[in-house]
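Known limitations

Structure tokens in this collection are predictions and should be treated as such. Users comparing against experimental data should check residue numbering before alignment. To illustrate the layout, the record for Palmitoyltransferase is reproduced below. The input appears on top and the generated tokens appear beneath it.
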Amino acid sequence: MHWGEDWKMALSRGLRCCQRVFSWIPVLIITAVVLWSYYAYVFELCLFTITNTLEKVAYLLVFHACFAMFSWTYWKSIFTPVAVPCKKFQLSYSDKQRYEMEERPDAQKQILVEIAKKLPISTRAQSGAIRFCDRCQVLKPDRCHHCSVCETCVLKMDHHCPWVNNCVGFSNYKFFLLFLAYSMLYCVFIATTVFRYFLKFWTGDLPNGPAKFHVLFLMFVALMFFISLMFLFSYHCWLVAKNRSTLEAFSAPVFIGGPDKNGFNVGMKRNMQQVFGEDVRQWFIPIFTSQGNGHYFPLKSQSSESQNPLLANEDLWEESDDGSEEGSLDVETQ
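Generated tokens:
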């Protein structure tokens, strides 16, 4: 019997390991395409095809600037750790014992309600109960969801993106948006500068050779990626303007008064500042400037911070039993 259980555990660990390995395949595909585009543009087009030195230098300078920003934002989207709920949202030892020993579902719900009174939680489950993750054993902060791929609860989770092999959420949503924007810019620059030589190869004005295949294919790939990225980027711009995540766009968050798809919409300017920060000069740089710590968000129904019961309750939430502050967290260190 023990042998059978050990075999199942070993099989489960093996499957998870394989899943982690295979999850990098989309990232490797994107990386391979980008590296090929670098070779095709820099060597086959600029160095081997373009004869005008000034044009060649100008193209290479702008191309490398676009390539650097694309690579930087892609790296940040992939390797920024997801932000997870802090310890204040975990059940204490005594609360956990009380919750697990209680067999009545209604009594368990009441225990969670009592604990949630000390926390800045406004959203509820579809049933109206406090949102609780049995796997992570935490009360879910507003806009937090459990990711089955990452196997953890993610603050302000938007979606799990296979192309970055990471959850897109509070800690890296700005980086993901910039990644989409700079990817579009990268494709647009390649397409516009390659177009003239694409026509020359197509009409036979330039001799056949290895460069012809690379230039023709580069044009098609740049246009194909640009069109798909344009739709995705436009959709996420709409989400930012409405202050919704992808999950909230499909299923409206539930508050005490019921579902409200615009519950976190506090106006376009403030919505954008929540993601990008107040300093416009830092909006286009992949450094973390999002407002807050991902655990609570201003609500549409609250016109100012002084009238916001979540923020008014912040002092109670942040102050622990020993007087230390654990509520605030540095996203970069998670």
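For this record: The radius of gyration is 25 Å. Residues 210-242 form the longest helix (33 residues). Please report discrepancies through the issue tracker.
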